[in-house]
UniProtKB/TrEMBL annotation:
SMART domains: Cullin_Nedd8. The lineage of its organism: Eukaryota, Metazoa, Chordata, Craniata, Vertebrata. This is CUL9 protein. InterPro entries: Cullin (IPR045093), Cullin_neddylation_domain (IPR019559), WH-like_DNA-bd_sf (IPR036388), WH_DNA-bd_sf (IPR036390). Residues 19-96 form the Cullin neddylation domain. It comes from Aegotheles bennettii.
């Protein structure tokens, strides 16, 4: 019995991780770009706009060619990440409204 070298698996895992990181970075950029323009937005509207931009390939300058499938869970995960990093905040009286 001969096992395949581990390097093949490591390369595949690294490629998957790299692809996920790129997707997360693009989503975070889209979220901040949309909120910079709008200043504040209901979280449902933000999710819809990000998903719509992903489907249309409107990822921003230099990334128009990048069109990928994203789900609301992906967007919400990035919103939570940006909230934890301090880039976004919720309104105290209306926690479903996000501000940049």
């Amino acid at each position: 019995l001969r096992l395949l070298p581990r390097q093949r698996y490591l390369r595949a895992e690294r490629a998957e991780v790299s692809a996920l990181e790129r997707k997360r970075n693009v989503l975070c950029c889209l979220i901040t770009r949309i909120l910079k323009v709008e200043k504040q937005l209901h979280i449902d509207n933000l999710v819809f706009r990000v998903i719509d931009a992903c489907q249309k390939g409107e990822s921003g300058p230099g990334l128009q060619f990048l069109s990928f499938c994203c789900h609301s869970v992906d967007v919400l995960s990035c919103v939570l990440h940006l909230l934890n990093q301090g880039y976004l905040r919720r309104q105290e009286e209306r926690p479903h409204v996000l501000e940049y």
